[in-house]
């Protein structure tokens, strides 16, 4: 194995194959220091079998997850068209993860597989979709490059119809380049030198890959904007290759009951009244379903389904102080910091069930909010925050998160940062549970803050914008967000912004047998964790009532590699009785105008 790796990395793919390494090594999972219970449930023939895009659903699709061929590469490699790569990998798990079967780090890697287009799709255009690939991906179908996508957190697609052969297997190759620390791209908490508060990277394909058939004229996107003050929702149906006479038919459902059906021109907002509107909140996360048809000459040429929540997030005045409002009322928001790493699979949860269990754990602990820390999750994560009722503060992944390896000047790819910032906001604009965008974290890669806050506001005027969680502050955006450990504090009063404590806590508790790496962090017992948490909750109540605090974020929901300050271990064992934490959180949320 080591010799084979050396040949491929040193001499390139051609020499690797010429050296007789032509048959792919069979996939097998590796062993991480600890594993969750869900690792054993992963089916390599069908990992992540769930439909990956729950707010834009088509009936017909083909999942390409599973075992692919894999090989490390070097700069300027020849594209391995028609060649068997020397090893196998389980998609969609990152190369560095145990579940990928590789558990190695490489700057350049190759993926390869074949697929066959279902015969019933012959008259359709075929889209190839990627949930996310970290960081740069060049995609080839039957030897032809379709283009390069940069950005490790967001979806992208190609229309592969012109590059398909008429029948039989089609070859798909993906080249990935991931510099991690060395290029200034958004990378969050990833580093090639993990330790402390920085963690193992997630290189390569880490979300679902799939095909879908569409008509020549098809629905490309939906924009859904609820307006609870006027009891209506505005829905814009965006299209590809639209021809004159095309109409959009939009139906809104409350359960099985049709609320309203409207017909109009694609590309223009259709206003739909919602009689007797049911508001979405953490305590009552009611969602309306949407069915959209694209009609030409009386026949439907495309259909998609979606959903939305009738909710409003704003800054209001409560007792003379600016505060965060949900549905025109002050609701104190209490939630954990969530880094979104997994011991056996890093950025990719081992399964959909595992991911859902994380959200359920937060709810069982009495939280009504979560700060998604320096990572953008798969769409199905937001599906569960929407359906289970958890407000989301969405961080933008930082660039050059912490200067390391002796570097004194940060590397920040500003055009890339802004491109991904735009894409993050636009691609998640319909998610009901996301109520605030966090532009920067603790000064990491921070620049041009007022301009970028204004950019986000222009892209999405319906949500709050946090100029910086932690520091530095420029009077921009909707909140002032201070970090303080261990006890929570409240920022100085502001005439224009709500006051929040974006990080506090960090109560350490080591659970032997459930740690990534040996550590001396400990407290005496789970009850001591609860007692300390309760003391912090009592402080938050005082800050809420006396200083105008609107929200607080506890660090953190799970241990993460070297950090042992989670309420759950890294392998997702609850460290204490969740009822004790939930009782404290209920004290914070209730009796203050909460929903």
Number of strands: 30
Secondary-structure-based class equals alpha/beta
> What's the CATH topology name of the largest domain?
Jelly Rolls
Largest sheet: 8 strands, parallel, barrel
- Rounded to the nearest angstrom, the radius of gyration is 24 Å
- Looking at CATH, the homologous superfamily of the largest domain is Galactose-binding domain-like
Q: What CATH architecture label of the largest domain applies?
A: Sandwich
Strand order of the largest sheet: 23-24-25-26-27-28-29-30
Look at the structure and give the mean pLDDT.
Answer: 93
CATH class bucket of the largest domain = Mainly Beta
**How many DSSP helices?**
8
Distance between the termini: 58 Å
Please indicate the percent range of residues in DSSP E strands (runs of 2 or more): 25-35%
What's the arrangement of secondary structure elements?
Elements: H1 2-11, H2 13-18, E1 62-63, E2 66-72, E3 87-91, E4 108-115, E5 125-130, E6 133-134, E7 136-141, E8 144-150, E9 156-159, E10 170-177, E11 204-205, E12 209-214, E13 218-227, E14 232-240, E15 247-254, E16 257-264, E17 269-273, E18 288-296, E19 299-308, E20 313-318, E21 321-326, E22 329-330, E23 333-338, H3 352-364, E24 369-372, H4 379-388, E25 391-395, H5 414-427, E26 434-438, H6 449-459, E27 464-469, E28 479-483, E29 498-505, H7 526-547, E30 549-555, H8 578-589
Parallel strand pairs: 23-24, 23-30, 24-25, 25-26, 26-27, 27-28, 28-29, 29-30
Antiparallel strand pairs: 1-12, 2-3, 2-4, 4-10, 5-9, 5-12, 6-11, 7-8, 7-10, 13-14, 14-17, 15-16, 15-18, 18-19, 20-21, 21-22
């Amino acid at each position: 194995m080591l010799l084979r790796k050396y040949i491929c990395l040193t001499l390139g793919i051609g020499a690797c194959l010429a050296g007789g390494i032509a048959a792919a090594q069979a996939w097998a999972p590796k062993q991480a220091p600890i594993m969750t219970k869900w690792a054993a449930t992963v089916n390599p023939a069908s990992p992540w079998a769930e439909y990956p895009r729950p707010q834009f659903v088509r009936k017909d699709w083909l999942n390409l997850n599973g075992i692919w061929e894999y090989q490390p590469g070097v700069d300027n490699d020849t594209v391995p068209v028609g060649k068997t790569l020397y090893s196998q990998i389980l998609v969609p798990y990152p190369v560095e993860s145990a579940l990928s079967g590789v558990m190695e780090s490489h700057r350049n890697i190759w993926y390869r597989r074949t697929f066959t287009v279902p015969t019933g799709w012959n008259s359709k255009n075929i889209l190839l979709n990627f949930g996310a690939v970290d960081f740069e991906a060049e995609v080839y179908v039957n030897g032809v490059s379709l283009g390069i996508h940069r950005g490790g957190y967001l979806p992208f697609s190609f229309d592969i119809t012109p590059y398909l052969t008429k029948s039989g297997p089609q070859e798909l190759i993906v080249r990935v380049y991931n510099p991690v620390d060395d290029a200034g791209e958004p990378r969050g908490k990833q580093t090639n030198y993990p330790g402390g508060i920085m963690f193992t990277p997630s290189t390569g394909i880490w979300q679902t890959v799939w095909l879908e058939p569409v008509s020549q004229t098809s629905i490309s996107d939906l924009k859904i904007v609820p307006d609870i003050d006027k009891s209506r929702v505005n829905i814009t149906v965006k299209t590809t290759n639209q021809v004159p006479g095309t109409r959009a038919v939009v139906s809104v459902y409350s359960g099985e009951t049709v609320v309203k059906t409207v017909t109009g021109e694609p590309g223009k907002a259709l206003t739909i009244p919602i009689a007797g509107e049911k508001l979405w909140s953490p305590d009552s996360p009611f969602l309306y379903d949407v069915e959209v048809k694209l009609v030409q000459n009386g026949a439907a040429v495309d259909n998609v389904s979606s959903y939305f929540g009738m909710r409003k997030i704003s800054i209001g005045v409560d007792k003379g102080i600016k505060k965060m409002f949900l549905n025109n009322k002050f609701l104190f928001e209490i939630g954990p910091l969530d880094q979104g790493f997994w011991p056996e699979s890093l950025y990719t949860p081992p399964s959909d069930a595992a991911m859902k269990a994380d959200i359920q754990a937060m709810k069982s602990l009495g939280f009504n909010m979560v700060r998604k820390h320096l990572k953008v999750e798969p769409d199905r994560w937001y599906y569960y925050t929407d359906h289970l009722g958890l407000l989301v503060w969405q961080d933008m992944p930082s660039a050059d998160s912490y200067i390391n390896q002796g570097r004194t000047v940060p590397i920040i790819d500003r055009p890339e940062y802004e491109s991904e910032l735009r894409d993050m906001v636009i691609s998640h604009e319909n998610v009901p549970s996301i109520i605030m965008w966090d532009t920067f974290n603790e000064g990491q890669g921070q620049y041009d803050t007022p301009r970028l806050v204004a950019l986000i506001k222009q892209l999405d005027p319906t949500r709050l914008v946090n100029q910086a969680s932690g520091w530095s502050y420029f009077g921009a955006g909707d909140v002032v967000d201070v970090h303080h450990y261990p006890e929570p504090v409240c920022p100085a009063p502001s005439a224009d912004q709500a006051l929040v404590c974006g990080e506090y806590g960090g109560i350490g508790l080591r659970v032997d047998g459930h740690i990534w790496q040996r550590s001396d962090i400990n407290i005496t017992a789970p009850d001591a964790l609860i007692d300390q948490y309760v003391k912090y909750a009592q402080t938050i109540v005082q800050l809420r009532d006396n200083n105008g605090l609107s929200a607080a974020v506890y660090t953190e929901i799970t241990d993460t590699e070297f950090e042992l300050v989670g309420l759950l271990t890294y392998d997702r064992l609850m460290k204490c009785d969740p009822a004790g934490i939930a009782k404290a959180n209920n004290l914070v949320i209730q009796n203050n105008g909460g929903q």
